[in-house]
Amino acid sequence: MEKYIILDHGSGGLASQNLIGSLFLKYLKNSVLNQLEDAAVLPPEHGQIAFSTDSYVVDPVFFPGGNIGELAVNGTINDLAMRGARPICLSLGLILEEGFAVDELEKIIKSIANACDYAGVPVVTGDTKVVPRGKADKIFINTSGIGIVEENININASQAQPGDIILLSGTLADHGITILTSREGLQVDANLLSDTRPLHFLAQAIVKDFPGAIHTMRDPTRGGLGTTLSEIAKTTKLCMEIEENSIPMHAEVRAACELMGLDPLYLANEGKCMVLAAPEYAEEILHRMRSVPEGRDTAIIGRVSEKHAGRVVLTTVAGGRRLVEPLSGEPLPRIC
Amino acid sequence: MHNLSTNQSQRTTSTSKTSHLHLNVTGIVQGVGFRPFVYKLAKKLDLTGSVANTGHGVTIHISGSTADIDSFVDKLKTDPPPLARISEIQFTAEQETEFADDFTIAISNDSEIKTTLISPDIATCKECINDISSPENHRFHYPFTNCTNCGPRVTIIRGVPYDRPKTSMAVFPMCASCMKEYHDPSDRRFHAQPNACPMCGPALSWHDNQGAVISDINEDCLKGCARALQKGSIVAIKGLGGFHLAVDACSNNAVQRLRENKHRYSKPLAVMVADLTTAERICLLNGKERELLLSRERPIVLVLKKQSCLSDKLSPRIREIGIMLAYTPLHHLLFDMEECPEILVMTSGNLSGEPICTDNSEALQKLANIADYFLLHNRDIVTRVDDSVVRVVRGRLQMIRRSRGYAPIPFSIPGIKKTVLACGAEQKNTFCLSRNGLLFLSQHIGDLKGPANIDFFEESLDYMKSILDVSPELIACDLHPDYLSSRHAAASSLPGLNVQHHHAHAAAIMAEHNLSEGLAVIFDGAGLGDDGTVWGGEILHVEGTSYERVGHLAPLMLPGGDRATHEIWRMGLAYLSAGGFDISKLTALPSTLQDIPADSLPGIAMIMEKKINTPLTSSVGRLFDAVSSLLGIRQEVDFEGQAAMELETLAWTAYESKDSMPDGDRYTGTIVWKNGQWQLDLRPLLPWLLADLKKGTPVAAIALFFHLWLVRSTHKALLQLFAKRYPTQTIMLGGGCFQNRMLLEFLAERLEENGYSVYTGEQVPVNDGGVSLGQACIALRQTEHPAQRPNQTNF
Ligand SMILES: [Fe+3]
Ligand SMILES: [Mg+2]
Ligand SMILES: [Zn+2]
Ligand SMILES: [Zn+2]
């Protein structure tokens, strides 16, 4: 086998078959994928079908706490989980740059396999293309996923109610700050790690245990918690009131944000969910979430109100209140 | 552009020999004693007919001899009531109609279009002060005394035409005696809509900070308040346009407690005194400042402090203090109380980042943790208006915050019909609405990032639209997409225009002084430039509605974006790094920087090297911060401009001691040409600063040298520009940094010595409070006369 990806690996010919056999099937094997048919055919399920897709182009491909492979698996699982779905399978599409190291690819495929095993969600169909050098950056991954949502479950932004509590399943901004510092080669803190992880165990636990009480779930990935909350506020015309003090954050993440002058509310998370739930069960939901490993650091960070319709209001550590609005792009200095 | 503060009138149709005339008077002619004035004048001249308020203003029908009618019109033009501001008088000769045999005041008709103007609130007049201080007067000690010449206006008006039912006085039916005054055209209170007396009008109540009533007898409330202040308590006092928080200004403890309770640790606090004599004891006043203090607008005037009993915690390390004179009967009565301290801190009654409280229950709830007592009353504040802040620079007014007494008096740019809404900047926000060539600059709104301030913005905008009866046809805002004011504009479906921040600053000055071309020096904090970088030290050539950036400060990095505006040591480091210093080690830095967090140094060095969130800025405000940091003046700021104000204060100390000048001569800027633009190179300044520091030159002297360097360099750059490409006579100085008196005075003086005409913001703030007016002018002019070379982008 070659040490580097060549164009032939995507040709469909022998080189392709070789790659599929020695890498993909080796690590990802399961009864459906093994058939290598044009489409995966799945047994029937009861319930509503959830279907989601996402593409992953993260730079660097390997980063502290994970790599692009597990990120792609967890990311799509999380999108399904946020609608209350039980994920049942994934597709895996790879676009490889000519010259990409095969042993790096192998590491990525291995971590995809591990992530699938841990989550209990198999890859049932896949595809690989190779593009000439410079036409892609090392590796791009697309994953799509199917999940099943119980008949009576309807979780989305418009279910949010005034009075709902806002929970966050753990520390903020770990992924965003890790990617930024590792991409730029900044030696800020050795303890910065991406938080990539699947959230369906956590989501399923509360959806099942508190029927009707879980109104909205979102994973604040790109754009961060601030942008996600703003979207919900705009959709519902309600006010999201959050307290800076109660948002869990790793000290090293906070320090890095302060150093760079970045607002952690706009940095990406890859293993956190935000839950809007009925206030009657606040303590029980908090407790239940903390009982799942992925939700160990869950905190109630705020409340939904009707005070400032369509807005997100942050009470700062100093006690002031300020609006959190989605940014139009990179943060631009604004103080005159 | 005209400010309607001078009465102007035009006779569009001349009176012929007819003995019947119909006049339509527009401007601020309601609620200012206009009708009784007309009534008395008509009576005196033996004219018959009628006068009425309409949605347009005032309409007058008169009959009589031609000579009498002529003198009536003359008097109307030359000597209208003191608070009236006539924008136009239209005349129509009338055919002989039924001959009235008397002159009457007709009742208001509100079915017509509402185009009348609303008066701002006016300080209590001398006659009313006499009333409340004469024991025989039935308004003796009555805190809500007013008349046609004074008292609340815009703060109590819910709708137009201005009549009592449309004010928050509607709930106080007048007693027989007030009613008599109200209906007597010869009385000072004829049709004074807020007219009231102790029998029928609003009343005080005195509460503890749990809201419990201690007293509801006016006299006892005043006494209770005076005593509490004497003992050093913090009192929330309901005023005209909102609440104040008051303490004894000579008590360090009381001031300190107010600062701590309010979390306002160092921002200057304004004081109020009863009269000019008391004011002269604590500050140095010139003629113009006295005039402003006594003016009916009664703004806070920023003046030089004197050695006095004043707590040094009021404006620490800053040489000016904000002072105002009592402007309501309540203030006068309070100061009249024997126990009342002579000088009171009167700062806005709000939570930090929120607008001032106007409502009793809101204040009781929000200010309970700040104030010990509440002096309330039961007249509602309809429109929130802060105290205005002004100062005198070069013998002229410099508006810092335009609110009570000034807003909503419009500015005019005749001939422009379109209706525009300009949303303004994000901090010190004001908005501007136009109607028929009049530009209505809103009262000061504040920092829109505060959730309650954006509500204030929206409420005020709705109020202004309804009072003026306009709906905008186009909308203008800043180029910065993330300003909340720009977001407001982006959410609108109206055609929009993004105006570059510093261009808007320049346009505001052009509008105020009726200029069409010139070089604009805009020294400011930060504004987004049209090249995507952060501007703030600009020389623009402005012509019509277009501009060209012809020069600017050499950019510095802003390490950590907006964070560098609070942690100004970041700017100090950015400057050192631009000068080639290794800033990763504390030992490599000047000793003035020893206070900064040592563990941040490698990190800051790294983000500057990797250019992570370190945008470049040509801002003069940030240069002031950088120099303040290097001189060790402070390393963090609590409020915008704090370091620059302290630096300026030091510079004046050195200037006034006169012994540090000669050395400063070597501080002269290096002007370089780069890409067809002038750039002021900052690098040569750095070694001078550091050498002087090392040598032990007093920091005050270095602060002065720095000011001189900036003045000389800017002057030099302008002379080069004039000579090379822009043979103009007109220089505009704008942007927040020109609130620095030394910068403005010295630069203007030099330019005037060279024969140039120098203009700056006077009635319109040079800070971001004036940006909306500039945006409005550009938008209006551009739609009427599209620019040759457009420099704005449509959304
Ligand atoms: Fe500005
Ligand atoms: Mg997705
Ligand atoms: Zn009066
Ligand atoms: Zn009365």
What does this structure look like?
Chain A has helices at residues 14-28, 68-81, 102-119, 174-184, 200-209, 224-236, 251-260, 282-291, and strands at residues 48-56, 62-63, 66-67, 86-97, 123-131, 139-149, 165-168, 214-218, 239-243, 274-277, 299-305, 312-315, 321-324. Chain A has 336 residues and is of the alpha+beta class. The longest helix of chain A is centred in the first third of the chain and has 18 residues, at 102-119. The radius of gyration of chain A is 21 Å and the shape is globular. In chain A, 48% of the residues are buried. With 795 residues, chain B is of the alpha+beta class. Among the domains of chain B are: 2-105, Alpha-Beta Plaits (2-Layer Sandwich); 204-377, Alpha-Beta Complex (DHBP synthase); 552-760, Nucleotidyltransferase, domain 5, CATH 3.30.420.40. Helix content of chain B is 31%, strand content 21%. Chain B has 22 helices and 33 strands. In chain B, strands 7, 8, 9, 10, 11, 12, 13, 14, 15, 16, 17 and 18 form a twelve-stranded mixed sheet that branches. In chain B, helix 5 packs across helix 9 (329-336), helix 15 crosses helix 17 and helix 19 packs antiparallel against helix 20 (699-724). Chain B is globular and about 90 Å long. Residues 5-16 and 787-795 of chain B have low confidence and may be disordered. Chains A and B meet through helix 7 and strand 13 of A and helix 11, strand 25, helix 14 and helix 16 of B. The structure holds fe (iii) ion, magnesium ion and zinc ion (2 copies). One zinc ion is lined by residues 124-125, 127-128, 146-147, 149-150 of chain B.
